[in-house]
Each structure stands twice: as structure tokens, then as C-alpha cells.
Amino acid sequence: MRILVVCGAGASSTFVAQRVRHAAHDQGLDYAAFAGTEASLPIDLDSADVVLVGPHLVHALERIERDAATRGTTVVLLPPDIFTDRDGTRTLALVRAAVGSPGGPLPAAGETAPTDT
């Protein structure tokens, strides 16, 4: 699965992408995560299965969802506290829930996601 993390300038999305990539690797998942910007989104959408949208881009969510729908790409608006997810497990749980992957319920803010055992 290819996960695109989008923010305004690409800085915060780089951190989120790196964390979710590590969390997926730790759970044995073959997921790739990469960062993009709102400006690069039209090009980046072509190589993404899931788009994680930074909470500060809520104003563009409807447009992003419309563009993603034409490509069959799932869109997830990240919660405002997502940057506190230091190990990426909560972000990974959001991805898995959005695409219907097993992994249990979404963790509440400040909690870590359950791991598969």
C-alpha cells in the first residue's frame, strides 16, 4: 500500500510519513509512505492508495476528496493532535481503519494503537 501524507509545505508531512512507515515496518506490513504538499497533490495522487491530509488543510478537503475519488484513492483527514503520535502507530491505525484492514479499533487521542499478535 502506498500512503501519501499531505501538508502545506511538506515539513510536517515528512515526519508523519516517516513515522507511519516505521510503524508499518514494525508490524510487518508492506506499506510505503511518502510526503507531499498541497501543490504537488495532483501529481502525487497518481501514485497513492491512501492520502492522509494534514488537519490544517481541512479547507481543501472537499477538493482533495473529489480529486482522489476519480483515482479510487482513500482520503483520511488527520486529527489535530496527530503530531503527538511519535511512533506512528495511531496514524497507521487510522490508515488501516480507512481501508478496512484488521487491526482493531482506533486508539483515542494520546493512546497507541493495538498491535496484531
TrEMBL record:
Pfam families: PTS_IIB. Keywords: Kinase, Phosphoprotein, Phosphotransferase system, Sugar transport, Transferase, Transport. The keyword GTP-binding does not apply. Residues 1-105 form the PTS EIIB type-3 domain. InterPro entries: PTS_EIIB-like_sf, PTS_EIIB_2/3, PTS_EIIB_3, PTS_sugar-specific_EIIB. It comes from Microbacterium kyungheense. The keyword Glycosyltransferase does not apply. The modification Phosphocysteine is found at residue 7. One of its GO terms (molecular function) is protein-N(PI)-phosphohistidine-sugar phosphotransferase activity. This is PTS system cellobiose-specific IIB component. One of its GO terms (biological process) is phosphoenolpyruvate-dependent sugar phosphotransferase system. PANTHER family: PTS SYSTEM N,N'-DIACETYLCHITOBIOSE-SPECIFIC EIIB COMPONENT.
